[in-house]
Structures are given as structure tokens and as C-alpha cells.
Amino acid sequence: MSDYSQRVTGSFNERMRLIRLRRKKENLRFWDEFRILPRWLIVLIIVLFLAAQAIALLVNLEEARHGGVMFPAELQENPALASLALAGIVTAASLCLASLIFLIAYVNRDAKRRGMSSALWTILVIILLPAWGFIGFVIYFLMREPMPYPCPQCGNSVGARFNFCPNCKCNLQPSCPQCKHEIAETDKYCPYCAYELGAGVAAGQATPNSVDPLAPSIGREGMS
């Protein structure tokens, strides 16, 4: 492998490590994530579920009234148990279908708030669903970007791949003062050269290489 390829691979692995660290800081909770689903979709699913239960029950009872065979046939002599069994089957099928619909809606909303193409990812998971099952969702959860987070200096919302804050020029990708590799805000020691990092670096503040290149004299005074 050439030196250039090694540098490209190392830079990619380094950036992915930082992205994984930022994902761990998101602290996502199920009900908080469930709230991003559109309310009209939740109401529609509930209405369709109740309608399916009512239709199944009425059709089953109407079949028995006309001398037909109730479903399931094993409970033909007990209409109450047959109705309960049918309701359970409808409920199980509805839960599976509703979970699938909610997953697709979640991908759409979650991709949008992470600055990704919501339409592209929604189409991808739908296309892969018939042939590959849930592989589209697995790919999305592995590849999705970290959520935007507040700039440690000005509080402005910034993307996970930003190097500098567009509002205050704060360095969002601090580097080790010794080996110049990118480090995470939570690192106490550089993972590449074991250099002990200061509290300012761990807090996401500017490092020696975060000086504004348009103002070198100010940067040199600040570092002296």
C-alpha cells in the first residue's frame, strides 16, 4: 500500500472514530425518538387497526350465523374463544405491519434532522425491503450521520462533519499539539502518541493548531 493510500485510510478511520464517539454522546431514548414520528401517522395506524378488528369480527360472526365455518375451525363450537383467537391474530399481524411502517417513517424523519437525504434513504429501505428484508434499515443505522450539536464556544448548531463553526470559527476538530492527529473532545491522552491533553482540549476549546489562518499574528500572541 502506498504512503498516500495509507494516509487516506488513516484519515478515514480517524474521522469514523470521532463520529462513533459523537454518536455515543447522543443518549437517545425510545420515547423521545418515537415522538419524532408524525402524529397523523400514529392516529391513522390506530384507526386502521380498530377497523381491521371490527371487520374481522363481523365477518367471522356473519359466517357463523349463515351456517358457515368460523375461524379458527378448531373453535367452531365456542364463538367467544374463536373471536378472541381471531382478534389475537389480527393484533399480531397489525403489530408487525405497524412496526414496519413506523420504521420507514422514522428513517425519513431521522435522516432529515441529521442533515441527510430523507427521500433517498426512505426509497432505499423500501426498495431493499421485498428482497433483503430489514437490511436497508441495518445499513441506515450503521451509516447515519451523528446529530448536529451545539458549538462549544457560541452554542450555534453545527454539523458533525464541520471542521470549524460557521458562526464563530471555533475549531470543532481539535488536534493533538504534538502529533497533529485529530482527537475527540473527551480524550485525556492522544490515542496516537499518548501525549497528555489539557483540560481545554477535552472541553472542545481551541488548540494550538486552531488559530485563525487569517490572523497569524494574533494566534502567535495567544500561543506565546
Radius of gyration from CA coordinates: 28 Å
Query: Can you list the strand order of the major beta sheet?
Result: 1-2
Biggest pleated sheet: 2 strands, antiparallel
The best one-word shape is: elongated
Structural class, from secondary structure content? Answer: mainly alpha
Helix-residue proportion = 55-70%
Mean pLDDT: 78
Layout of helices and strands, plus pairs?
Layout: H1 3-24, H2 30-34, H3 39-65, H4 79-113, H5 118-132, H6 135-143, E1 149-150, E2 157-158, H7 199-202, H8 216-223
Antiparallel strand pairs: 1-2
Q: What would your notes on this structure say?
A:
56% of the residues lie in helices and 2% in strands. The protein is built from eight helices and two strands. The protein has a two-stranded antiparallel ribbon with strand order 1-2. The radius of gyration is 28 Å and the shape is elongated.
Q: What's the gist of this structure?
A:
The protein is mainly α. The protein has a two-stranded antiparallel sheet.
List keywords for this structure.
56% helix, disordered C terminus, 224 residues, 8 helices, 2% strand, elongated, single chain, mainly alpha, 2 domains, two-stranded antiparallel ribbon
